[in-house]
Amino acid sequence: MPSMQDGTVKIRRGKRTDFLALTALLSLPAPCAAKREQIRHWRRLASDPRFDFYIAEQAGTVRGMVLICYIRELSRPGWQAVLDVVAPLSAEGGIGQALLDFGKERARKRGCQRLLVYESDREQDGRRAALAQAGFHSVGDVLCCGLR
Question: What is the pLDDT of residues 45-64, one digit of tens each?
Answer without folding.
Answer: 888 888 999 999 988 889 99
